[in-house]
Structures are given as structure tokens and as C-alpha cells.
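Lecture 7, part B: from sequences to assemblies.

Below are the input chains for today's worked example.
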Amino acid sequence: MYKVKVYVTLRESVLDPQGTAVKGALHSLSYTEVKDVRIGKFMELVIEESGRDINELVREMCEKLLANPVIEDYRYEIEEAVAR
Amino acid sequence: MKFAVIVFPGSNCDVDMYHAIADELGEEVEYVWHDEDNLDRFDAILLPGGFSYGDYLRSGAIARFSKVMAAVKQAAEAGKPVLGVCNGFQILLEAGLLPGAMRRNQGLKFICRPVRLTVENNETMFTSAYEKGEVITIPIAHGEGNYYCDEQTLKRLIENRQIVFRYHGENPNGSLADIAGIVNERGNVLGMMPHPERAVDALLGSADGLKLFRSIVNYWRETHVVTA
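Predicted structure of the full complex, as C-alpha cells:
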């Protein structure tokens, strides 16, 4: 069993309207040191051992469905969950 | 001529689309549930607006994998007119039938009101009944209509005259190059954020959307009906 954490964010080159609004809110709370805010998605997947390479599998799922490569970047972390 | 209105769980403009075709245009139309796999009996495919699969993950991201989308792809490859409105446009983008992607509206708000559009290209099977540069009024209703593509794609869209509708006067959602609707390179797949099916009768505030559906019918008659 693997526990996989997937992070999806808008690409650097794509303006993030939500992030911009949150940055403005932080500035209005006088956190003027905040230079940039990017808002993304966090997903946790629990994946059973299937004989396929786990990295290959996760990358495939990210590119097919979990992220839209036109506007989004993704990264992930794999943790091997302890077998019960 | 026979139209298909594809219905996904969460579609909500399917009835308006059906009404536009059946009552305003007087053509044949049928609802098609997302798990059908054959669209051979139809001459044109309509993907209506709404919130397919609750817009979970991204608008259109889940709908694009439904069974019917393979048949929509086939219809597009066969050269049949395929029109995606609003969520239908988002599905076409996610499916790769049109280039680019949608971001949240620049102002972050869901916007529901009539907007003015310029008909940039009236030489498509969807817009031949309009004048070139005609300014029309059609309502929008979306939270994610902020069109984006990379520079190369934009250049191609302009060169091939694939930008069919642009927002006129004011851009409501921040979309790149004021884009409101684009066609694929072949010109038979149109995606647009404004809702032509909600503008088919003066009673609704505008009948400017009607010409879009008429254009499709005219195109089909010209190519399929042999005159004696």
C-alpha cells in the first residue's frame, strides 16, 4: 500500500486570480512581506500494490486527470504505508 | 436534420438547448445520456452548459472521460458540427478537441448577465448567418470562463481565423485576447462561453443566438440536401 500526496498548482506563467486576491487580503492585514500567493489543490491517494511502477502510475494519473498540463504543474510524494 | 443534446449528470442547460432546436428552429432533436457510445444517427452534436460531475477537480475534467465523449470525438473527426456551450466548451478543452484551458474569472465572481460579442469570423458553419463584425448580445453565466492558451497557440488561433467570437467593449472574465469562442482548425468544433440557446426569442431579451443554430442548419442543407 502506498500513500501518495499530490499537489497541483497553476503554472508560474499563469496568473492565479485567487492567489492574487488572497495576497491582497494579507497585505491589508499588514503582512506586507508576502510577495506571492499561489493557491492549489492537495490530494491524498491510497494505492494498492499492482506490480506497476508507482512513480509511473502516479505520473500517468496526474497527466491524464489530476492536473491539466495546459495551465497546471503537479508534484507528488510517495509514502509506503505500513502493512497491517 | 437531427441534433443530439448530450446530457451529463449536472448538465442544466440541456432543456434550453432542446427548446432552441425543437421549438425555435423546428428541427429534430434528442437527449443523449452520457453513457451512450453511438452518435451515428445524428447530424450535429450539442454539449450544453451546467456543472457536469459537480465541476469536481476542474470544470469538464471528469465529463471528458464519459463513454459518450469517444463518440463525440468520432463525430468531430467525421466533420459533423459539434457545439459546446459554457461547460460544454470546458469539456471540449479538457478533451483536447479544442486548444487551451479555462481559469477562474479574473474578478473571481460567477457572472450571469448579457454581454456584447463581435462576430470575428462569419465564414464558419456556425456563423454564416451573421454579418462580418456584427455585434450581438448573448448572455454569459460562468465562474470559469477566463480562457488561456500559450503564445504559440494564440498565434495559430489568429492566423487560422479560429477566434470566432470576442467580447465587445468590455471583457467580463479576463480571457486572453477577449476570446469568447473558438473553433478547431477544421472549423467543425465550436466552443463558446456565451449561451446562444438562451437568446433565441425577443421575449428572453435577445434572439441573437438563433442565427448560430440557423447557420448550422443552412450548412447541413447545403452539404446534404440535393436540390432537384
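Note for the exam: DSSP finds two helices and three strands in chain A. Keep this in mind when comparing with the next example.
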